[in-house]
Input
Amino acid sequence: DTAVSQTPKYLVTQMGNDKSIKCEQNLGHDTMYWYKQDSKKFLKIMFSYNNKELIINETVPNRFSPKSPDKAHLNLHINSLELGDSAVYFCASSHATAPGLRPDTQYFGPGTRLTVL
Amino acid sequence: SQQGEEDPQALSIQEGENATMNCSYKTSINNLQWYRQNSGRGLVHLILIRSNEREKHSGRLRVTLDTSKKSSSLLITASRAADTASYFCATDDHNTDKLIFGTGTRLQVFP
Output
């Protein structure tokens, strides 16, 4: 009965590789997010999707591409990984149902710790 | 940057004592939320206070909001060792759908 799940929990890879992180929520939420938390615990939003539509796209390198096959899933694909991509990536979901509605309580996944060597 | 700042960055107390954390932000908001993050885990929502509210309680948690000073405080009363975690405030960006997280306060409660 996990609410927001992410796989894998840990990901160690070499520079230049391409990797994906998967996220699923079973809360029936319409909006999903990807956040990046750096080594200083600074948490910053990367993307958000509402009903499979991209709503927020922060200034993130285009090596990062989110994909939402349905509103319960939001995956993150990263091409040509760099050392600076090492961080913990969190998926989250909420009831914010449409652009312009205020962000509601967000439910976070357990995180994926990405280490790029 | 719109990012909120929290104060103190780190706080160590004994079990039974109260812990107070403060959050300052820069823009107009509709609501402010507090989250807890245990080491190696995701964030867990604690409480949401709307811009027209001044104080809210949830169990041992008390949150205040002063929109004139653009600040909020989180008080944890009668702390327990299990309260050891990082605490983040988050404000909604008035013009977009984003949540802006603060820098966090690391709370250590010693038994």
Q: What stands out?
A: The mean pLDDT of chain A is 90. Chain A touches chain B through 26 residues (CB under 8 Å). The radius of gyration of chain A is 13 Å. Chain A is about 0% helix and 55% strand.
